[in-house]
Design goal:
The complex is a heterodimer of chains A (32) and B (155). Chain A has 32 residues and is of the alpha+beta class. Chain A is 34% helix and 19% strand. With 155 residues, chain B is mainly alpha-helical. Helix content of chain B is 53%, strand content 11%. The chains are: A alpha+beta (32), B mainly alpha (155). The interface between A and B is medium-sized, with 27 and 40 residues. Strand 1 of chain A pairs antiparallel with strand 2 of chain B.
Chain lengths: 32, 155
């Protein structure tokens, strides 16, 4: 399997979830 | 981007199939709107949201693969529990208990399975069974202490 297809826009991701009915896994990260 | 637990093939498959995965970069000098909306104070912070964007579970700090799976499962269970789908929540919590017995999130799954069982059946023995399980398997966990009042419920 390839890379995880991350959504990077939270609002767009939630909209995708609303359409699919799936829950959201949201990872807040910092590139330190 | 797919480093740490995200390089695990099972994690990739699970996230792709079961969730909409989102990564949101944080900037401490100029917090983003999502950081402010969800009150993010440290990274990594992980949230499980329902399809309307409402938060149901949060965990902070690096997690190895087994703990990540357990928290994802716990989050799905809490989503079902919070929306009064108790029978489905019980199944989800049991999955966490069976598949991830050594994960840090699992004692909470045991506790909530007992509560969901009581709410679903109105049988207080579900609470007593949760107490017994926590005392036997996770006696040092805070969830065992939280379940302590249920020790008085007769089986």
């Amino acid at each position: 399997m390839g890379e995880i297809r991350w959504e990077t826009d939270v609002n767009a991701g939630v909209e995708k979830a609303r359409k699919s009915g799936k829950p959201v896994f949201l990872d807040f990260w910092f590139d330190g | 981007m797919n480093t740490g637990p995200y390089s695990d093939e099972k994690v990739k498959k699970f996230l792709e199939e079961q969730f909409v995965p989102i990564r949101s970069q944080c900037y401490w000098d100029k917090p983003t709107e999502p950081m402010q909306r969800f009150g993010i104070k440290w990274t990594p912070t992980f949230l499980v949201l329902d399809a309307d964007g409402k938060e149901h579970h949060r965990f902070v700090g690096f997690v190895p693969v087994d703990d990540l799976f357990a928290n994802l499962g716990l989050g799905k269970g809490k989503l079902l529990y919070d929306t009064d789908r108790m029978a489905e929540a019980m199944v989800q919590f049991q999955t966490v208990i069976d598949r991830h017995p050594d994960a840090g999130a699992t004692p909470e799954a045991v506790f909530l399975q007992g509560v969901a069982g009581f709410k679903d059946t109105h049988d207080p023995k579900a609470l007593r069974r949760a107490y017994d399980s926590l005392k036997a398997k996770y006696p040092q966990s805070e969830w065992a202490r939280r379940a302590d009042p249920y020790s008085a419920i007769p089986l």
